[in-house]
Design a protein that fits this description.
This protein has 83 residues and is an all-alpha fold. Helices cover 82% and strands 0% of the residues. It has a domain at 26-82. The protein has 2 helices and no strands.
């Protein structure tokens, strides 16, 4: 006969999986929000001043910088909690 699964055995795996999903979700928002805000902001400024690719590229560059710094801070926080 098959044994019924013991929920206590898989508790660590389930918790690790949940933390991984939460991390991926957070990382997605950390990357997406600055990209959308600075990208659309740069496009708006470009349209207003008629400087086609200049401000959208600057905006996306700033979004990349802010996303990198936010991800770095988030990973440091996770490492500090974990170890």
């Amino acid at each position: 006969m098959m044994e019924s699964p013991d929920p206590k055995k898989n508790d660590g795996i389930g918790k690790a999986l949940w933390l991984a999903v939460q991390l991926v979700w957070d990382m997605g928002w950390i990357i997406a929000i600055p990209a959308v805000l600075f990208g659309f902001g740069g496009a708006y400024v470009d349209k207003y001043f008629q400087t086609s690719p200049l401000f959208i590229l600057l905006g996306l560059g700033l979004a990349l910088l802010f996303s990198f710094l936010a991800l770095k801070r988030k990973l440091k926080e996770i490492i500090k909690k974990r170890f």
